[in-house]
Amino acid sequence: MPRRRIGFWYRFAAVICKPPLVVLIKRDWRGMEHIPAEGGFITVVNHNSHVDPFAYAHYQYNTGRVPRFLAKSGLFKKGFVGAAMRGTGQIPVYRESTDALSAFRAAIDAVERGECVAFYPEGTLTRDPNGWPMTGKTGAARVALQTKCPVIPVAQWGANELLPPYAKKPNLFPRKTHRVLAGPPVDLSRFYDREMTPEVLKEATEVIMAAITRRLEEIRGEKAPKTPYDPRRERIEQRRRTQAQTHGKQTEGQSK
Fold first, then answer.
1. pLDDT confidence of residue 78
2. 101 to each of 17, 61, 98, 200, how far by Cα in Å?
3. pLDDT in tens, 50-101
4. Are 31 and 183 in contact (CB under 8 A)?
């Protein structure tokens, strides 16, 4: 199946975005040979800075296989940004609405047309205190198992040093290096003949996240925590701690 043409809007976006990226960050990019030359596929990428979608898009643009990102629907509505999002073929995500599943249908359609869809499986910036990938959401696994397409794990590091997660001001000096490492396709074949239950999707997602994390360990030269940070588990633990503190204060008050 042929590759998607880059098109006017992607080339126009590249003309605008590439010069400041080249000035602001150095590049250590590896693994481009794992990006398929033809046919539909998905990339699964860790997310640790508001800058990294631009830095990663630069990496993949240079492979000749432009990515289609899943992005908040509000970005598509008006103005130049909306025109650019529509023109480059990005996929709107309608959160908490009846159209929430339309993004996954659009992603499946794009892969089946021979395009690349880039997923941030964590769904948001990582909240791991040391920047490691969190537990992932199941959207990428759902598309992968539905289409049986190649799933390319990609790790990146460095954009977060330019603009740390949730920071408002960039740290420009010294000049940072954006490191990217793509790996061979994740083997999900053992899930293909199984019913796509929540348990299967969760297990496949864990395999995907482990592949991303291994790439990031190689980039950073460190070992990731054995148990990925889980925002849901952390919220539950925080609620328990709050309830315990409240109960302790009530008990202390009654004893006086």
1. 77
2. 30, 27, 8, 19
3. 999 999 999 999 999 999 998 888 888 878 888 888 888 899 887 665 565 7
4. yes
Joined tokens for residue 168: 């408002």
- Lowest-pLDDT range, 101-105, 137-141, 185-189, 197-201? 101-105
Taking the alpha carbons at both ends of the chain, their separation in whole angstroms is: 77
Question: Would you call 86 exposed, middle or buried from its count of C-beta atoms within 10 A (0-12, 13-18, 19+)?
Answer: middle
- Whole-number Å distance between alpha carbons of 219 and 213: 10
Give buried/exposed letters for 8-20 (b at 16+ CB in 10 A, else e). ebbeebbeeeeee
Q: Which two tokens stand for residue 97?
A: 């609405």
What the block records as the tokens of 202 is: 């969760």
Average pLDDT on 225-238 reads 92
Cα gap 113→229, rounded to integer Å: 35
Backbone phi and psi for residue 68, each to the nearest 5 degrees, phi listed first: -110, 115
Rounded Cα distance, 94 and 78, in Å:
16
Residue 241 host element (H or E): helix 231-255
Asked if residues 3 and 37 have their Cβ atoms less than 8 Å apart, the reply is yes
